[in-house]
Amino acid sequence: MGNSSYVVGDHSMKPVYEWHLNDRNDFALKKAKKYRDENEKLYGKRHPLIAFFLQRDTIIEDSAYAFVKGYLEDIKSEELGDMNKIIADFEKARTTDNPAPVLRAYSRSHGFSQQLNKDMAKNTYHALALYCTPLNCNVLARIHDGIQAFVAILFHPKLKDYLCRGVFTIYRGATIDSEELLEGYENESTIITTTFLSTSKCPGVAEMFSSLDPTKQSQISLLCRYTIHNYRRTALDMAEFSKFPHEEEVLIYPYVPFRIVSFTKTTLEPTGQKRIEVELEEINDIPTGS
């Protein structure tokens, strides 16, 4: 199967970075909805005068250029995979006004998607937990605009054919080194996704990435089950773009709220290692004005 760990889990990325715990005042829920609304409004109907003078929509062209110049060229490294092909994908998206090549770029390299999601998690943490803005935070100033350009492309209406529909369950597996990473996450907690999350329709695929090394006693198996309702732009079907289409990859968007339905810990025999299973269900937004 090759190096396909980007599909459903990442042994090197702390899963806690994938979630942000909502607070009592629902600040995170409100902020997440605002982020989604801002990206969707980019593609709303334009005023006739604006449409006339601008003639055409250049959001993909501008965003692809901004991502390459404002982010890719800054992080470019051989360790992140074949950056020339990734940059070529963005150039194709820019010149053809088609966001689909960006999904291909995301799937090309584990190193690239991992770095992108780590930086996206930093963005979300600084915005939701530290109340930063690009004007007063060096972290956001460095990567905010580039990350936002990438997210904007994946909200484009031309990707509607790849949006998931209906209600179904998807799975994500990982291993972690300490339960401390999941402190505060318990039954009935509400979390916000902070990154793009690669999952699978097939539980067996996720199980591969939660499998343990019996020589590492402290290693913990983590399996997450996400029930998707598609109340919003929740997830993309990535099978057409994945190097391993049989793994049935589904990519969850950032800023999607979930409720933790169950949080179960067990001890595995004969190694005595631990396993944590988390069931999450997508929830709707809080009513406007509440």
Secondary-structure blueprint:
Layout: E1 19-21, H1 27-41, H2 48-54, H3 59-75, H4 83-96, H5 100-108, H6 110-128, H7 138-154, E2 168-176, E3 190-193, E4 197-200, H8 203-209, E5 220-228, E6 235-237, E7 249-252, E8 257-267, E9 274-282
The main sheet comes to: 6 strands, mixed
Helix and strand run: EHHHHHHHEEEHEEEEE
Number of strands: 9
Alpha-carbon Rg, integer: 19 Å
- Give the class-level CATH name: Alpha Beta
Query: How much helical structure, as a percent, in the residues?
Result: 25-40%
Low-confidence stretches: 1-16, 49-53
CATH superfamily: Toxin ADP-ribosyltransferase, Chain A, domain 1
Give the count of helical stretches.
Answer: 8
> What is the rounded distance between the termini?
48 Å
Could you name the key traits of this structure?
290 residues, Toxin ADP-ribosyltransferase, Chain A, domain 1, 3-stranded antiparallel β-sheet, 9 strands, 6-stranded mixed β-sheet, single chain, globular, alpha+beta
Q: Would you kindly provide a written description of the structure presented here, covering whatever features stand out?
A:
This protein is an alpha+beta fold. The protein has one domain (15-282): Toxin ADP-ribosyltransferase, Chain A, domain 1. The chain contains 8 helices and 9 strands. It has helices at 27-41, 48-54, 59-75, 83-96, 100-108, 110-128, 138-154, 203-209, and strands spanning 19-21, 168-176, 190-193, 197-200, 220-228, 235-237, 249-252, 257-267, 274-282. It has a 6-stranded mixed sheet. It has a 3-stranded antiparallel sheet with strand order 4-7-6. Helix 3 packs across helix 7 (138-154) and helix 4 (83-96) runs antiparallel to helix 5 (100-108).
